[in-house]
Amino acid sequence: MRICMILEGSYPYVRGGVSSWMHDYILALPQHEFILWTIGAAEKDKGSFKYELPQNVIEVHEVFLDTSLKHRIKKNNAFRLSAKEKEMMEALLESGDPDYDILFEYFQRNTKNPAAFFISLQFTELIKELSDRKYPFLPFSDLFHAMRSMFLPVIYLMTCPVPTADVYHAAASGYSGVLGALASWSQKKPFILTEHGIYTREREEEILRSDWISPEFKKMWIQLFYMFSRCAYKKAVTVTSLFERAMFTQQDIGCPSEKCIVINNGIHYNSFYNIPVKEPDGWVDIGAIIRFAPIKDIKTLIYAFSSLKVSVPKSRLHILGGTDDEEYYQECLLLIDQTGVPDIWIAGSTDVQVYLQKLDFTVLTSISEGQPLAIIESLAAARPVVCTDVGCCRELVEGKSGQDHFGDAGLCCAPMDYPAISKAMERLCVDSELRKEMGFAGRQRVLHVYSHKKMVEAYLNAYERMVQQWPA
Is residue 53 located within the same domain as residue 103? Predict the structure, then answer.
């Protein structure tokens, strides 16, 4: 089987999270061929892979959103839309529910530069109508440029050539979900969508916290990403989530319930089971397997550890993860310097299995997660976890209500509540027996529930069902 994985802002450009999941997934299926169709923000990142690609990756198709802004527009590159195409374009610009078959047909067969549409008379007329009807108090020039920056990348994606595959599998419902829908339409093949987190909710949180989007345009950007999700949900044959609460959120956003299934993340248990418990040395070593990114909220972690050092001076914090977001990384370094808290070690991207031998327990302070592999790996190594109550984190440390009797494998706190996180870390620091009990409970839970083999089999079964049911 030839499987096209559609990836956005992750594998193979950054390490950890979805990227780790993707790499292990491909390695687990050497009998199948994989095509990577990747979406990045900037063309400067072309070919900058952080992974050595497995041998069964036979093609890589890189697409960068800033490419849409770089092509020169010829004078004869004018766009002419039919009445129906104009109607669908209006629905797109309003982040409604356009007929994507019409849009895909137009932009796939149209060889013109999509940027030409945004300097055309028709686009100006559409924005003027939209301005008069919905945004009469916004400056027209601001609206014009905002709409151009929002919709030029997605229209550019609709013009991209589609790789040939038997199944298309997107790992998010954003731009990659739109490409999955396009591929299914173009190649007449089934499309499966996997969401590790709820994409729209994560983008909504980022937009509300951002300072690069003017307040008057934040709602428009949020509506754009909800439209992407509805497009992906509509065109996908199967939509997977990592846990039930996420599945119900997908249905609330608009995914038909009959398409939804839950497939847990899984790890290679044996790779972590044999990691020895750390020998006592008078210190308590805490690990954060986490990349430097605002959504991981490392600043709250720094504040929590700073508070912990007052009550547990012989504690150390190890941060294991990539520093791809250089701006946020520098902000965290500045905060460490300003607080003056000692014993924070930044290990960067490293071998987690080896480094876990140095740790007593781990911590995760994200403001949004799906079903983080960092927690599952930590539990498999019998290291309990302090985590925030986001995504599936509580279910990982406490078990699924009524279906899991292994016991608590960690402590769960509210996001951004650094005093509570500090207290939870202190509790594990001072009670080695509790760490031992929770570590054993977590190891048993991973063994019985979060197997990598079970996960891979579940996806293969989903592929086979889709191919069998797909009309010839």
Answer: no
Question: Collapsing DSSP states into helix, strand and coil, what is residue 464?
Answer: helix
Which whole-number Å values give the CA distances from 394 to 26, 243, 266, 333, 400, in the listed order? 28, 11, 17, 29, 9
* Phi, psi dihedrals of residue 227, rounded to the nearest 5°: -65, -40
Quote the percentage of the chain above a pLDDT of 70: 97
Taking 3-state DSSP, the helix, strand and coil percentages for the chain, each rounded to the nearest 5, stand at 50, 15, 35
With 0-12 / 13-18 / 19 or more C-beta atoms within 10 angstroms meaning exposed / middle / buried, residue 47 is exposed
**Average pLDDT in the chain:** 92
Q: Tell me the average pLDDT across 387-411.
A: 91
Cβ–Cβ < 8 Å for 237, 256: no
Query: Distance between CA atoms of 214 and 316, rounded to whole angstroms?
Result: 40
Contact 409, 417 (CB under 8 A): no
Query: Residue 400: which residues within 8 A CB-CB, separation 6 or more?
Result: none
The rounded distance, in Å, linking the Cα atoms of 292 and 323 is: 5
pTM of the model: 0.86
**pLDDT higher than 90, residue 379:** yes
Taking each helix axis as running N to C, give the angle between helix 83-93 and helix 121-134, from 0 to 180 degrees, rounded to the nearest 10: 50
> What confidence tier does 472 reach under pLDDT thresholds 50, 70, 90?
low
3-state secondary structure (DSSP) of residue 102 = helix
For residues 77-98, average pLDDT = 88
Residue 49 domain-assigned? yes
Q: Using the predicted structure, report yes or no on whether residue 120 has a pLDDT greater than 90.
A: no
In this structure, the answer to whether residues 197 and 246 fall within a common structural domain is: yes
* Strand 238-241 relative to strand 191-194, pairing: parallel
Q: Which residues pair with 315 in a beta bridge?
A: 284
CA distances (Å), 39 to each of 118, 154, 177, in order?
22, 11, 11
Q: Report the pLDDT averaged over residues 191-199.
A: 94
| Contact criterion met (CB below 8 Å) for 440 and 447 | no
Find the domain containing 261 and state its range: 2-70+161-266+455-469
Number of domains in the chain: 3
Which residue has 């020169």 as its token pair? 72
Spatial CA neighbour of 232 closest among 274, 199, 273, 188 = 199
Give me the phi and psi of 386, to 5 degrees please. Answer: -105, 125
Query: What is the pLDDT, as a whole number, of residue 296?
Result: 94
Is the CB of residue 251 less than 8 Å from the CB of residue 436? Answer: no
SS3 (DSSP) at 413: strand
